[in-house]
Amino acid sequence: MTDLELEERVRAALRAVADATPTEVVVRAHSRRTPRLLLIAALVAVAGIAASIVVAVERDDQPTAVTDQPAGPAAVASPLPTGFDVNTANPFFSAEGQAENVVEAYLRDRFPDYPSPGVSMEAPAEEGLVTRVRWSTGSETEGELASGDVFLRQVDGAWGVVATTTDDLDLSDLAYDGDRVIGTVTSTSDESLFVEVRDWRGDFVRQQPERFGGEVGQLDVDVANRLAPTTVRILQVGGTVLSIAEVRFDPSPLPAHRDFERCVTDHTTREKEPTPDILGRLCSDALDGDVIGSGAGGGPAWELIATDEPSGHWVTLRARDQIGTYRISADGDFDSLFLQLGPCCSFAGHVVVAGTLRPGTTGMRVTLGDGTAIAAEGFEDPSTGAVHSIALVPLRLIADDATARVEVRLADGTFEDAGLDLNLAILGG
To answer: What is the pTM of this model?
Structure first.
């Protein structure tokens, strides 16, 4: 029997089985040359069940599998972007309380008609470094509309949401290259898909200042947001928000350097993207210097970095998602108790009172309007002798009264009033 005759007999057998079953056979070849068929697998038909057909064919010594394709929608490859790690991702939502309290607050915030459409959640489950909470929407009458997971981890002393998934939403193709978020979101649901691309504070990014989409089954995303934390929020909508999936992308760190001013100049664009505050944070994060002080305990993480730069010796405060700047060049020659003192910045739900104190002091104490006192350690800069002190005031403590007084702690442990009336609602003092 010739090769052609053998191949035609196989094709006839395949056609006969295909006519008798509802399956579709897809053949993929690796070569256009006429092959020699080495093996024909048994063709099995099971009554009442679609047959599965497998033929092993040699194509230049490369076997190719031939199989039928199952009916129905394709399975979700991954509800999270490829390479996304919930164990290290930065949070995009945080609130007070335990994990279940934070998830409830998150769901209330994201579903505009909460508790409709039947938003519910299960008990938290610890999974290594993260905690997972199952959520769902629907009711006994209409059945389950959607379901998924909320992933949390403890960051800066508080529970934060680092990812949210919907079971039938595939985000595996989404990616961020430091310039654009790009990819295709797919769904096995017949509900409309919408996307919101937001910045690290939750505001819409400049290049896409509104929700977009409306397609069913598939939605393409291509939104610019240069060198900035970017949150992508995917919604399934049918009269109201039925489900949500959300992740935050962060740009890769800038190269290590010892010249803050040059870093800012090199990365500033005519369009001011990223914005000066984000660019300043990127350049501060990349400073290659000596850590002279840091946050301790279970509270927000921060560092004081001392660097010798072309423009002088500097001490810089850096923290995740920091708003405002504490960066000062001090030679240690002070005529008064302090060189700089006041609220400079905020991060992780706290206002920062930063002090550049004269050599020999050991820290400070911030007293709020209600009498609450917050003590802060002093960190000496070995190069200058100047002492830097960072006090973190929780925002919840200044909701009604933002006034405060500061006392500087001297070497003998006594305190001296700094003579300042501070308004903690105004940064940049």
So the answer is: 0.79
